[in-house]
Amino acid sequence: MRSFWNHYKCTLGISVLPIRSCTTQISLSPMAQPLGGSVLAVLFLLSCSAMAMAAYNVVDFGAKPDGQTDAAKAFLAAWEATCRARKPATMVVPAGRFLVSQALFKGPCKNAGMKMFIMGTLVAPSGYSDITQWITLKYVEGLSVYNGTLDGRGQALWACKKARRSCPYGATSLTIGQSKNILLSGIRLLNSEVFQMSIFSSTGVTVRGATITAPDDSPNTDGIHVQMSSAITIRGSTMRTGDDCISLGPGSAHVWIENIKCGPGHGISIGSLGNAAQEAGVQNISVRSVVFAGTQNGLRIKTWGRPSNGYVKGVTFEHAVMSNVQNPIVVDQNYCPSNINCPGQSSGIKISQVNFHDVRGSSATQVAVKLDCSPSNPCSEVSLKDIKLTYRNKQAQSYCRNVKGTASGVMNPPSCL
Question: Average of pLDDT values for 61-88?
Fold first, then answer.
């Protein structure tokens, strides 16, 4: 197998001076220098991995970086070699555009220290089909994915839906299912047909430095959706979508979200919840240091207005900045799209121990704080602290219904608790 490190030395103009430790000295030719610090970091990791791990380059398995030849079989062959290695191994996707029809990277693997370095772009086929998942990690434990772009090319499906034709549901660009200890660092997701990323039934997933982009009118293009998963960290990322930047569904627990830029989009949402009568709860959620710009919502909890045994508890939203956000703080327990299957009913989701602390900025509507809870299951132990929200040159307002809690510190708008 051709050495992937030699390939990078040729294509990026890198000269490596061998020394005893992993702190390999790397010098870049003028051609490579404009690529920036993130590439330097990846190249450093590549050099260390090259010395310590077996490495499998998708090009060596037949992938062509021309954006036209389906590389799915080559990607899966490289993955199989990486997964079957008894010692930690590396899969490499070099620079270029790789057409991938669909790929399921499936475990369990024989080692739990795998790495995947993506220097190029994976592109979905043009048009659309009936598949619901494009790139999937399933039953995988101990994988770190660095950099790379996934272009879902969802424009054709969005146009179909906009024209109200008979269209398939669409495919999530990246699905992490039933997996454990996964790191995604510096990944870029573009134009997924529906969800950009879905984390389902997994534990120990970290997403850092992600950039997620889709037009603000693209339907159901949530940035990251989490469901039935725990020990999830999302930090240092930028998201511009046509739906929620981050959504947390049933069974989300021990989730840490920090240093996020969101907008356009629908904000960060817990929910919607309560669509099913029997549903796992959501608990121990921390969302902090988020900037919302021009979003439909800021910090939101949303439940269907019908019976369910689910719950939300132990949630802290803090240090959030709003810039022209329509609904900066909102709890809506009367979600009932088109008044179908829920008119006149009451949400069974029990909401308690929710904190909104240090939320400031500007609201695009006069009601900047809306806590509209269930009449049969009122919200309890809700805390508002240091809320500083303005509405143009008028006094912002708050609205409360069926909620018990406390307010402290600076309160603008005045508290309705």
Answer: 98
Cα–Cα dist 411/347, whole Å: 28
CA 198 to chain centre: 7
What is the distance of C-alpha 407 from the center of its chain? 32
For residues 180 and 199, is the Cβ–Cβ distance under 8 A? no
Please tell me the distance from the alpha carbon of residue 58 to that of residue 78, in angstroms, as a whole number.
6
State the Cα–Cα distance between residues 385 and 377, nearest whole angstrom: 23
Outline where DSSP puts E strands in 43-108.
54-57, 66-70, 89-93, 97-99, 103-106
Contact of 338 with 367, CB cutoff 8 Å: no
Rounded to the nearest integer, the mean pLDDT of the chain is 90
Q: What share of the chain is helix, strand, coil (3-state, %, to 5)?
A: 15, 50, 35
Distances (CA, A) of 120 to 80, 97, 104: 20, 6, 19
CB atoms within 10 A of CB 243: 22
Please, which pLDDT band fits residue 40 given cuts at 50, 70 and 90? very low
Q: Give me the percent of the chain exceeding a pLDDT of 90.
A: 85
* pLDDT at residue 6 tops 90: no
H/E run at residue 272: strand 268-273
Catalytic residue flag (residue 7) = no
- Give the Å distances, CA to CA, from 288 to 162, 257, 323, 358: 35, 6, 16, 10
Buried b (16+ CB within 10 A) or exposed e, 193-206: bbbbbbbbebbbbb
- 25 Cβ contact list (under 8 Å, min separation 6): 16, 17, 19
Q: What is the pTM of this model?
A: 0.89
Nearest to 193 by CA among 213, 217, 169: 169
Of 225, 254, 266, 319, which one is the catalytic site residue?
266
Phi, psi of 249 (to 5 degrees): -95, -175
